[in-house]
# Entry
Amino acid sequence: AQSVTQLGSHVSVSEGALVLLRCNYSSSVPPYLFWYVQYPNQGLQLLLKYTSAATLVKGINGFEAEFKKSETSFHLTKPSAHMSDAAEYFCAVSVAGSEKLVFGKGTKLTVNP
Amino acid sequence: EAGVAQSPRYKIIEKRQSVAFWCNPISGHATLYWYQQILGQGPKLLIQFQNNGVVDDSQLPKDRFSAERLKGVDSTLKIQPAKLEDSAVYLCASSIRTAGSTEAFFGQGTRLTVV
# Structure
């Protein structure tokens, strides 16, 4: 079975600072990994995904994530935070042949002016 | 391209009442999902359809929850009778498999409050 652990339910950064949201996964087979963003009262929007191609994945809005098999991690980063990045971020895992997504508990990002 | 449509957006009911949610997926998407998102948690899959067949309903509380996907297009999720712990956002998503991966597109959700 697959699972995801997101370290830190709340992260607060200053505008212009580095954003780092942590995600570790557990999977007995090679995983597909995803980051989704959820704005208040909205559904989830895909930021980026890893599907066994390049380990460094670039997504929308300047976000990127690096798949590190040795660390079973898929941390999300952005060099410079913007006020509009304030939202909740979810890491999710699935495996080839299954379209079921297993989500972490989410990390709420606050960006301070 | 139109997104995943869900209705209603908000619903308040008393415990032991029944409620139904509707979802219209993106045209051409064969797979449809219903997720339950309790406040402070990540979404949890309730049921997954492939066309009009159920692929996974292992986490659906079948004594009170039911879902169907008419003609492999839109879907209805029902709760009868509702309990206080059913208060959550119910998200519908749809997906289509492309080369190498699947991307799920989510609706805005229905926020259910059971009082």
